[in-house]
Specification:
Elements: E1 5-11, E2 26-27, E3 30-31, H1 32-42, E4 48-52, E5 64-67, H2 75-87, E6 93-98, H3 106-114, E7 119-124, E8 127-135, H4 139-145, H5 153-157, E9 162-165
Helix pairs in contact: 2-4
């Protein structure tokens, strides 16, 4: 492939059930947003783009940080903004992850990148999860399908997606509530 595989962190939500935005939350000494950026970097994704919204702050290690003014409409608007931002780069694929996946690992992201697929999704014991890998040719369709909190779900359901098992090197659980 001529271009690179970018990383896209969706971090714009307000974290209603969590009690506030998740991006700045510090877990094990690191903000969730920084952790997401670092694991994409460790998996050699470039550039790394972060979409913020309910919380806006510095994310020093991201290559590009954009603010979704329409964050309250749901994840779909953040996914659209992130893909629109990447159109101007040389990336030919993107790994899209959520900010609230503390069990995700660089190894899991590398498996997606190394799958050779243009459309892949992480699987945990056979169950679909995050992150997802989207080849540039899929970006317009994903963008058109992204609506509300559904993100790429409808697009992925309508296409042949390579499931890449990563459950042995990562956890797909998201952080919906603050740890006790």
């Amino acid at each position: 492939m001529s271009g690179s595989t970018a990383g896209l962190v969706l971090a714009a939500g307000e974290g209603r059930r969590f009690g506030g935005p998740k991006a700045p939350y510090v877990l094990d000494g690191e903000r969730l947003v920084d952790r997401a950026v670092h694991l994409l970097r460790d998996a050699e994704c470039e550039p790394v783009v972060v979409v913020l919204g309910a919380w806006v702050g510095r994310v020093d290690d991201a290559d590009i940080t954009v603010v979704n003014a329409d964050w309250a409409s749901g994840m779909g608007s953040s996914l659209r903004l992130g893909l629109d931002t990447l159109v101007g780069t040389e990336a030919d694929r993107v790994v899209v992850t959520l900010v609230d996946l503390p069990g995700l690992s660089p190894e899991a992201v590398r498996r997606l990148v190394d799958s050779g697929s243009d459309l892949a999704q992480a699987a945990y014991a056979g169950e679909r999860g995050h992150p997802v890998l989207l080849g540039r040719g899929h970006w317009p369709g994903v963008r058109d399908a992204a609506d509300g909190d559904r993100g790429a779900r409808a697009y992925l359901a309508a296409h042949d997606v390579a499931l890449v098992e990563v459950g042995d090197v990562a956890s797909g659980e998201d952080l919906d509530e603050r740890p006790a």
